[in-house]
Specification:
The protein is mainly alpha-helical. It has eight helices and no strands. The radius of gyration is 18 Å and the shape is flat. The mean pLDDT is 89.
């Protein structure tokens, strides 16, 4: 972002929530979005709609998965079902808490809840791509091992 402020680069890609403070300050102007819906980006073209390539659409859809899922929380295998219900309800209640939402608004961030069912649906979309799409995707996205 410093390079943008210094006018050393013309733009960058990133999540809307992470870039929101810079957008609010007028340093950035979004011109295209992923499939993740945000009312603030309504009217912007969805990147998948800018290609006619079936593979291109799939790759752009796969790139949107991180935005669609957000930061997921997991529990150990064989966690009892009643505890999973408690955890899911707690996260949902927290995400909808008016005080938390007000604080998030002050910080210019967005807090939302994605159900485990929706998360699994998004992950399955990625995992069930044809081999040729996965190979092409691999040319652009590399997994980095943690250090």
């Amino acid at each position: 972002m410093l390079a943008i402020e210094r006018k050393e680069v013309e733009g960058r890609a990133g999540s809307f929530s992470a870039l929101q403070p810079y957008i609010s300050r007028g340093l950035l102007r979004p011109f295209v979005r992923s499939r993740l819906y945000d009312p603030a980006l309504e009217g912007l073209p969805v990147n998948e709609d800018l290609t006619t390539s079936k593979t291109g659409k799939a790759i752009l859809g796969m790139l949107a998965t991180a935005d669609l899922i957000g930061r997921s929380y997991v529990a150990p295998p064989k966690t009892p079902a009643h505890l999973m219900v408690i955890l899911k309800n707690a996260f949902l209640k927290t995400a909808k808490d008016p005080a938390l939402q007000a604080e998030a608004k002050k910080l210019n961030i967005s807090i939302s809840y994605t159900t485990s069912e929706e998360t699994v649906k998004v992950i399955n979309y990625v995992l069930n791509q044809p081999a040729e799409v996965a190979r092409e995707f691999g040319k652009y996205v590399r997994m980095q091992s943690g250090s």
